[in-house]
């Protein structure tokens, strides 16, 4: 790869930004939502279907791919893009989230984390150096630093110790990543809900230097109000000329509120996970298609939606296939949810570009407050 990774800011509206991240594998329009392909697949979706929703980039999971089928096997088979038939950009997390979520299965030291596999109990070591090695083997276009964060709430001492460790690991990640034209390494800001710790973390990361920066350590139990309180200042502490990524977020109103506060990139399992349980995100809020009220309803999930689920299938049919445990149920509602998320991102980009974000946000909230549309 000879083309450099770069971020061009095209327009702003208040703190909100729209632009384009350019990579050798294609452009990423921002604000961007990245569907989560944990194990080299977005569950219940074909790669071409994910692309058809408007997704420019996917997320893969270092920890899970390390265990199965292994990064070395994927590299031998031509890399993650070829392996999963996705020729556009891929971002991989570092395995750091599992440091928190699998706390009962790991041992944490300055060197790194020793995991006991949730699959077979085998032991595996993840360090900043090993995480960089795995992500290089996978061929990730955007690589995340290896970090550690506590679940919230946590006391200041625990949050500070975690942040300081993550900054030391960020420096080691940068050194291990090296100079790789066309690829990007993102630093991850930590510090919980403590503004002074966030500022210290941002300064440390900026001194190291990264192609992009993530706001980490949120969506870990603090609630939306506290998260937005942190986002009122955290993105402003990071370099303005680099992409800013809020990890693991979130619900549609989370995304809208975070874009208002200057975030450029998101990922979350929610649209696909909810799709598999019969929860559909629409302009009028969440619809639980398994409820009996949909049994005889000929309408689509969302009459304004152009996805294949809404344009070709009724609520009555979706209710039937979910109650019958048919695989197509997860496929259709996941497709709709991912389409809705990408349409939301497209609407936000257009609103920022035309300086009409306030109007877009007002309509978004008013439509959702009205609730699910009544039966005709």
Can you give a write-up of this model?
The structure is a single chain. Helix content is 41%, strand content 19%. By secondary structure, it is α/β, with parallel strands linked by helices. The protein folds into two domains: 6-268, Queuine tRNA-ribosyltransferase-like (TIM Barrel), CATH 3.20.20; 275-370, no CATH class. It has an eight-stranded parallel beta sheet with strand order 4-14-13-12-11-10-6-5. It has a three-stranded antiparallel beta sheet with strand order 1-2-3. Helix 7 (156-177) runs parallel beside helix 8 and helix 13 (315-323) packs across helix 14 (327-353). It starts with 5 loop residues before the first strand and ends in a 6-residue tail after the last helix.
Using brief descriptors, characterize the structure shown.
376 residues, alpha/beta, TIM Barrel, 2 domains, 8-stranded parallel β-sheet, 3-stranded antiparallel β-sheet, 15 helices, globular
By CATH, the topology of the largest domain is TIM Barrel
Low-confidence stretches: none
* Helical percentage: 40-55%
- Please provide the count of β strands: 16
Radius of gyration, taken over Cα atoms and rounded to an integer in Å: 20 Å
Overall 3D geometry?
Answer: globular
The CATH class of the largest domain is: Alpha Beta
Oligomer: single chain
CATH architecture assignment of the largest domain? Alpha-Beta Barrel
Structural class call reads alpha/beta
Beginning-to-end CA distance, first to last residue: 55 Å
């Amino acid at each position: 790869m000879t083309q450099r990774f770069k971020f061009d800011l095209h327009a702003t509206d208040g703190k909100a930004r729209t632009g384009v991240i350019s990579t050798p594998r294609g452009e990423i329009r921002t604000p961007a939502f990245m569907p989560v392909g944990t194990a080299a697949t977005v569950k219940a979706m074909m790669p071409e279907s994910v692309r058809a929703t408007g997704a420019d980039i996917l997320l893969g999971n270092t920890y899970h791919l390390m265990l199965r089928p292994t990064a070395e096997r994927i590299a031998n088979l031509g890399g993650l893009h070829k392996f999963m038939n996705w020729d556009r950009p891929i971002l991989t997390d570092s395995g750091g989230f599992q440091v928190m979520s699998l706390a009962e299965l790991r041992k944490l030291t300055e060197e790194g984390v020793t995991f006991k596999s949730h699959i077979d109990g085998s032991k595996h070591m993840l360090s900043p150096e090993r995480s960089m090695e795995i992500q290089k083997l996978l061929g990730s276009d955007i690589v995340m630093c290896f970090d550690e964060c506590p679940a919230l709430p946590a006391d200041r001492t625990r949050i500070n110790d975690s942040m300081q460790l993550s900054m030391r690991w960020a420096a080691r990640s940068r050194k291990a990543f090296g100079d790789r034209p066309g690829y990007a390494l993102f630093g991850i800001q930590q510090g919980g809900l403590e503004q002074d710790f966030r500022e210290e973390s941002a300064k440390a990361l900026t001194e190291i230097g990264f192609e992009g920066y993530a706001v980490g350590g949120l969506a870990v139990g603090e609630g939306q109000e506290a998260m937005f309180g942190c986002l009122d200042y955290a993105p402003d502490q990071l370099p303005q000329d680099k992409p800013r990524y809020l990890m693991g977020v979130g619900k549609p109103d989370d995304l809208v509120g975070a874009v208002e506060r200057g975030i450029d990139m998101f990922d979350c399992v929610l649209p696909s996970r909810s799709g598999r349980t019969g929860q559909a995100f629409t302009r009028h809020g969440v619809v639980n298609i398994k409820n009996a009220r949909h049994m005889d309803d000929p309408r689509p999930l969302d009459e304004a939606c152009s996805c294949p689920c809404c344009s070709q299938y009724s609520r009555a049919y979706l209710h039937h296939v979910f109650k019958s445990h048919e695989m197509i149920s997860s496929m259709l509602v996941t497709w709709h949810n991912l389409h809705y998320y990408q349409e939301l991102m497209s609407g936000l980009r257009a609103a920022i570009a035309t300086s009409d974000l306030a109007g877009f946000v007002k309509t978004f909230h008013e439509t959702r407050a009205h609730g699910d549309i009544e039966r005709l």
